[in-house]
Amino acid sequence: MSLAENTPLSLLNQVFGYESFRDGQQEVIDACLSGKDSLVLMPTGGGKSLCYQIPALLLNHITVVVTPLLSLMKDQVDQLLELDIAAAFINSQQDRQEQIQVLNQVQHGEIKILYVSPERLLQPSFMDHLKFCGVGLFAIDEAHCLSHWGHDFRQDYLRLHCIKPNFPNTPIMALTATADRATRHDISYQLQLQDPYIHVGSFDRPNLRYTIEEKFKPLNQLLTFLDTQSDNCGIVYCSSRARVDDIAAKLQAKGYKAEAYHAGWDTSHRVAVQDKFQRDDIQIVVATIAFGMGINKPNIRFVVHYDLAKTIENYYQETGRAGRDGLPAECLLFFDSADVPRVKRLISDNPNEERAKVELQRFSAMIALADAQTCRRQVLLNYFNEYDNHSCGNCDICLDPPKSFDGTLLAQQALSCVYRSGQQFGVGHVIDILRGSQNLRIKDHGHDKLSTYGLGKDQSQEYWLSIMRQLIHQGLVEQDISQGSRLLLTEKSRPYLKSEKVLHLAVPRIGRTHLYEKPNKVNYDKHLFARLKGLRKAIAQEHDVPPFVVFSDATLVDMANKLPTNPRALLAVSGVGETKLQRYGNAFLTVIEQHLANG
After folding, report:
1. E strand residue ranges, 238-321
2. Counting beta carbons within 10 angstroms of the beta carbon of residue 566, is it exposed (0 to 12), middle (13 to 18) or buried (19 or more)?
3. How far apart are CA 247 and CA 252, in angstroms?
4. CATH 1.10.10.10 residue ranges in the chain?
5. Which DSSP helix (H) or strand (E) runs through 562?
6. DSSP assigned state of 520
7. Per-residue DSSP letters for 263-274?
8. For site-directed labelling of 118, which of 110, 124, 472, 528 has its Cα 20 to 30 A away?
């Protein structure tokens, strides 16, 4: 059957191995094939790439995909080549000869999908080459980079406004995972989209479990979490390069296959780390937010934020790198309210006052998510104007609802301790007084003689830290960050100290390991799955591609569940198309048959 006789659905079935389109994909593809511009908002893992890959197979001229992400170029080209789809990229990591070879293939109509950076596209000679050859579709990935209001604005993207004047009859498809109304309007304006078809998909990722923990001893908390993850792959995000290197070294010392990734490392190191992670040769990447954009690895089973993200957009995009295959994944964030004033001050230092104001609003929304006492997913979805009044049942709030108690006495003890120590000390010192510590600093200041000394010795340091943070959050105490974060009583604390009001606090939630040990919702033969993973790894090494390029974890799970024993049955497995059936089918069927024969 020639491509001309194909339909989007038949290509989805035969080439990509999926039975039906996800929400919105069919409509976006139809709009594109009718020549319309489009703006596509789909969550990470929602299937954005199929929206332009399938039209590319049906259009007469080449599809040009514009992306700033070199890793995504290579990953997607590898996957397309494994499906016998003619795809290529041109970027700075190729030598001149390789680039000329690709350009010749484009000129002779031998390439269906070409990935380029915005800088490459905008070179006059390259633009002229495309005009000569003809372009069927421009797909602009990470389109939020176009907008001043986007969370990852890039100056080079602004010049993409020249596409429409140079190719007035070629549809443009702008794609992103996160964009609010202002950003969406800006994307359309910058690209000069003509009456675009707009699809805003659901931001809900039900397979992701959101957990936000109060930060007590974060390294110990991280290790406790990792103990539940077996050999799963994941990312640990940190706010600074120094912390990335420190955490990576400590994980390595504990026997984890972990590597550090940030902009301070040279290019060769970063490329090597990313490649090893893609190929499942390392388990954990500890990184700044420099890592992750364009990562096409579908089997990331967890994302940990060691520090608070600055915006919900960043948090959503970074957590969205987990569970792209649709299988369950964990998203864990450690939150320390003491970080809030420091980050606010950094944002306020931005000389662009308008930008600083917007960023402060976004940071406040992130704090609200971390502080939420209601379903995390509700808060997240509501932020993106997807209002949902139903609790998700798969976040820490739903699984372990907060409990409140009369904390007036504890508050009085803590507030009195702040007052009696002269309002000159930080949280740690006040807690040491309350717990009756005998360290030298306490004795040197005579604080072992205070009436509040040892009043809270029955509670742990973590317990009191939670109480103190709640008092700060409720405005009874302030932290003076200009003076070593010393604690100062506010006027609001007076009625509680005088027992004129009752104060309700949340019971500190410490050591909730059980949340990570919730049974996997997917039922399949785990032993067979392990054998299939081993076969996949061997084939991937032979073909010099990452394992997920052969088959995703979700496809292996479906195999282990359906237990196909013939080619026709294997074709019914999600993610198995005709090309991969011919290429790998016999090997996987043999492993399944051997497994069944052995009982």
Report:
1. 258-261, 284-287, 300-305
2. exposed
3. 9
4. 404-508
5. helix 553-562
6. P
7. TTS-HHHHHHHH
8. 110
Task: Quote the CA–CA distance of 247 and 577 in Å, as a whole number.
Answer: 41
Which backbone phi and psi does 405 adopt, to 5 degrees?
A: -150, 165
pTM over cut 0.85: no
CA atoms within 13 Å, Cβ hemisphere of 3 = 13
Cα–Cα dist 369/305, whole Å: 14
Class of domain 404-508: mainly alpha
Three-class secondary structure of residue 327 per DSSP: coil
| Overall residue count recorded for the chain in this entry | 599
Q: Which CATH architecture has domain 3-200?
A: 3-Layer(aba) Sandwich (3.40)
- The ranges of the chain annotated as CATH 1.10.150.80 are 526-597
Distances (CA, A) of 468 to 190, 268, 417, 456, 490: 48, 45, 11, 12, 14
What is the sign of the dihedral through the CA atoms of 577, 579, 582 and 587? negative
User: What is the DSSP track for 374-432?
Assistant: S-HHHHHHHHTT----S--SSBHHHHS---EEE-HHHHHHHHHHHHHTTT---HHHHHH
Which CATH code fits 208-399?
3.40.50.300
Query: Could you tell me where in the chain the CATH 3.40.50.300 domains are found?
Result: 3-200, 208-399
Q: What is the CATH code for 526-597?
A: 1.10.150.80
| Average pLDDT, 10 consecutive residues per value, the chain (599 residues) | 71 93 94 96 86 96 90 85 94 87 93 93 92 95 76 72 94 88 86 94 91 91 92 93 96 96 88 90 90 74 94 89 92 89 85 83 88 88 83 90 92 96 93 95 94 94 89 84 81 94 88 62 84 95 92 94 95 94 95 90
Query: What is the torsion angle, in degrees rounded to the nearest 10, for the CA atoms of residue 424, residue 425, residue 426 and residue 431?
Result: -140
For the chain, the 3-state helix, strand and coil shares in percent, each to the nearest 5, are 50, 15, 35
Cβ contact 314:289 at 8 Å: yes
